Automatic annotation (TrEMBL):
EC code: 2.5.1.3
Similarity comment: Belongs to the thiamine-phosphate synthase family.
GO molecular function: magnesium ion binding; thiamine-phosphate diphosphorylase activity
Name of the protein in question: Thiamine-phosphate synthase
Species of provenance: Cryobacterium adonitolivorans
Record-listed 4-amino-2-methyl-5-(diphosphooxymethyl)pyrimidine binding positions: Q36, V37, R38, D39, K40, N67, T111, K143
NCBIfam families the record matches: thiE
Binding site for 2-[(2R,5Z)-2-carboxy-4-methylthiazol-5(2H)-ylidene]ethyl phosphate: T140, V141, T142, G171, V191, S192
Transmembrane segments: none
Gene: thiE
Domain (Thiamine phosphate synthase/TenI): residue spans on this chain: 6-194
Length: 213
């Protein structure tokens, strides 16, 4: 299993002129351990190009997954890229089908934000899902249609019922990192904290300091 501790979800718009690739490279130098390439509006070809760039730059130093796009993941593998898996949401392709398509070695994560969603995941055969993305911790502009805010206490309550690692996501700020680790988080996922930061490397280092203090 990959190191989920410091998990970056990319946002092409927030990275701005600096670009996703440069942001990811700096973030990995700063301590990011998993990168999820996510672009909900880009074409499959555009996301594949970005994924190949990211994997080529950092795939030997960190875990690289792609959001939702099973076909893109499989095409990247066929090109020999160091891509390790993918993350799917509740509205994406059924995770059992995803596992069938990608095989047993890929890392597969799924978003789960409620007890009912947790229960559905736990009904799946062992090995279908590797980790859960759980949130939102705080209201966030990067996901305006987000589910109800959990806060750290709500996350802790859900995570305590899980047999799978839980990564906290959604509005996670620097001050939330240590409380979330104490609450049982296997990792914290951030978007704007790094993508919108003037210095992505410094932002990642700050997250790393909080996680390891």
């Amino acid at each position: 299993m990959s190191n989920l501790a410091l998990y970056l979800v990319t946002d092409t718009a927030l990275c701005g002129a600096r670009g996703v690739l440069a942001t990811v490279i700096d973030a990995v130098v700063g301590g990011i351990t998993t990168v999820q390439v996510r672009d909900k509006t880009g074409s499959d070809d555009a996301v594949l190009r970005l994924l190949l760039q990211v994997a080529g730059a950092v795939g030997d130093r960190t875990t690289v997954v792609v959001n939702d796009r099973v076909d893109v993941y499989l095409r990247a593998l066929a090109e020999g890229a160091a891509v390790h898996g993918l993350h799917v949401g509740q509205g994406d392709e059924a995770v059992a089908r995803v596992r069938d398509r990608v095989g047993p070695d890929a890392i597969v994560g799924i978003t789960a934000n409620t007890p009912a969603e947790f229960a559905r995941v736990f009904e799946l055969p062992a090995g279908t899902v590797d980790y859960l993305g759980v949130g939102v911790i705080r209201a966030t502009v990067t996901k305006p249609d987000h589910p109800p805010v959990l806060g750290v206490p709500g996350f802790a309550k859900l995570a305590s019922t899980s047999v799978l690692p839980c990564v906290a996501i959604g509005g996670v700020g620097l001050a939330d990192v240590w409380p979330l680790r104490q609450a049982g988080a296997a990792g914290v996922a951030v978007v704007s904290t790094i993508c919108a930061a003037p210095d992505a490397r410094a932002a990642a280092r700050a997250l790393h300091r909080e996680w390891t203090r």
